[in-house]
Protein: RNA polymerase subunit sigma-70
Amino acid sequence: MIDETQLLEELKSENEKNQAFKVLLKLYKERLYWHIRNIVKSHDDADDVLQNTFIKIYKNIHNFKGDSKLFSWMYRIATNESITFINKKAKQLQITNEEVQQLAINNLTSDVYFEGDAIQLKLQQAIATLPEKQQLVFNMKYFEHIKYKDMSEILKTSEGALKASYHIAVKKIETYITNN
Structure:
C-alpha cells in the first residue's frame, strides 16, 4: 500500500513529480475511469474526460491543501470534468443535459465496450431520469461502493443529505423500472 503523504510530497517535488504521477495513474486510473464512465456513459467520452482529469490533477497538484484525502480531491475533479463535458456537449448540440444523457444511453447498445444486457440498459435509462445530484450519489454508492463519508468529502454535502438522495434515487429507479 502506498503512503498517500509520501506520494503527495513526491508529486509536489519537481525531481520526483513525473515518477510519482505514474504511480498515481496506476493507482487511480481504473477507478476514476469507471466513475467518469458512470456519468458520461460512453467509453470514448470517458477516456477523453479521464485524460482531462489527469491533466488537471498534474497541473494543480501543488494547490492540493490536504483538507481532504487525495482520492476525494481527484474524484471531485473527475466529477466536475464529467459534468463540464456533458454541459459542453449539450451546448454544442443545443439540447439539454438530460437529452445528452439520453443520447449516450441510446448509443450504449452500439458501444462495443458496453457489456450490459437489457436489464443493465433499463437501469441506465432509469438513472438518466434522475436529477444530476441523485445520479452522482446513486452511481457512487451502487456501482462504486463509495462510503457516504468519502462521498461527503467528494461532493461537499452532508452524509445525511447523501443518504436521503440515495434513498429517493432508489425509489425513483424502482418506479421507473416497474412502469417501463
In short: The chain has a mean pLDDT of 90. The radius of gyration is 17 Å. DSSP finds nine helices and no strands in the chain.
